[in-house]
Amino acid sequence: MLNIYKTIDNKLVECDKIEKDCWINLADPTEEELQFVKKTLLIDDDFLRAALDKEEISRVEMDDDTGYALITLDVPIFIQDKAITTYSTIPVGIIETQDNIVTVCLQKNQIIEDFVNGKIKNVFTNLRTRFIFQLLYHIATRFLLYLRRIDKCRIVIEKKLQQTMQNQGLIQLQDLDKSLVFFSTSLRANMMVLEKIQRGRILKLYDDDAELLEDVLIEVEQAIEMSNIYSNILSGTMGAFSSIISNNMNTIMKILTSITILLAIPTMISGFYGMNVSNLPMPTFGFSMLVSVLITTFVAFILYKKNMLS
Description:
CATH class of the largest domain: Alpha Beta
Order of helices and strands: EEEHHEEEEHHHHH
Shape: rod-shaped
């Protein structure tokens, strides 16, 4: 999908054609759309297709021939599958040309949609550096938002597991742990890109824009710290529940073993008296039952004292 936007009268308005100071957004673009943008803005094909690779790493690159800059960052997304919500990251490419800004992504994401829907104020497509930093800032805040959601989800799942230990809850905790791993890896890669941008070699930094970039760095640092904290908490929670499950299994096996021992006693005694042999003491049903009850009771008392029945 190809959409063109431009700030007119302090409002972000969708346009029909590419003009100077426009923002061109490509979300899951077709080959025709890619070729159109490539020919219109003379953008290198590698720049346009960089973010269309799911495995693309966060990086920043400058085209010496055209002076165009490419910034590739990971952005957070959530995946809703029935009642389970998981989180992951996808690459987004931001290309600064002489007169325009181009964003490329594999799919629609909430960060771009917030700009389109006017949720982000004071967006000016003619101020390209500021626009890019606003995108970066919103990406960082979106990471923080999803991290808080992950922690709230962990708390809910933990409470459910305390009541009923189910495999579904443990699977959800494992999914959240994977999400935190994705976030932590992406945030560290994004931080390296932001530090390169801060040096001023890729984008021209103005005073106000430099302050905004510092805010972005602070948000990303906070997101990295939160990701590490939540990951440690989640790992500890999963370890605790694993220990509880193992302990419960040991308790069940201990009880079953004790019951097996108790059931074996009357079986053994009745087996002796059921054999076709002579000279057994008092070969009557009442005596064998009495012996079985007495021995079973004695063994049960010993097992009880050793906490084998609880």
